[in-house]
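tokens incoming
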């Protein structure tokens, strides 16, 4: 056992270098947030495909926290909302209330095709519309579901890191 500890101490921390910063300019709110963004996730009526990918984004492989993005449980502690799914009629008002509860400056990220343009649920009787029809959206991430790398890139635009 002592030999294992010696090897760990001799080797040190081993990690891959961070990928290059995302192309394009960051959001104006990123400078105000100082590189650290507290995120509240809202499922507005999705099929849970995007939630699986968001779970992997904050897992050990993609580790979005190393870029300054952290999930919080309350919108009152959040700087940004990450919204998935088309907004159903039952979730339109709760989404507006959640958006209003986030202190300024606030940003909204629409994750997935359903959040961007209702995707496969376009025209369904229970769908109120896309996220931008209910609250203003700052960043849209395409895909059904989007790849974790795309979600990390979108979050890095928020943090500026």
């Amino acid at each position: 056992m002592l030999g294992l500890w010696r090897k760990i101490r001799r080797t040190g921390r081993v990690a891959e270098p961070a990928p290059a910063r995302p192309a394009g300019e960051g959001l104006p709110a990123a400078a105000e947030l100082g590189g650290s963004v507290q995120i509240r996730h809202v499922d507005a009526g999705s099929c849970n495909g995007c939630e699986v990918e968001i779970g992997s984004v904050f897992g050990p492989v993609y580790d979005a926290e190393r870029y300054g993005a952290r999930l919080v449980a309350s919108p009152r502690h959040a700087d940004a909302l990450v919204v998935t799914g088309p907004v159903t009629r039952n979730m339109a008002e709760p989404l507006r209330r959640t958006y209003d509860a986030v202190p300024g400056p606030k940003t909204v990220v629409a994750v997935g095709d359903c959040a961007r343009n209702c995707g496969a649920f376009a025209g369904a009787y229970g769908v109120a519309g896309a996220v931008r029809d209910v609250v203003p959206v700052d960043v849209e991430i395409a895909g059904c579901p989007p790849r974790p790398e795309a979600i990390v890139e979108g979050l890095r635009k928020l943090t500026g890191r």
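note: The helical segments are 2-11, 28-33, 49-57, 92-101, 113-117, 148-159.
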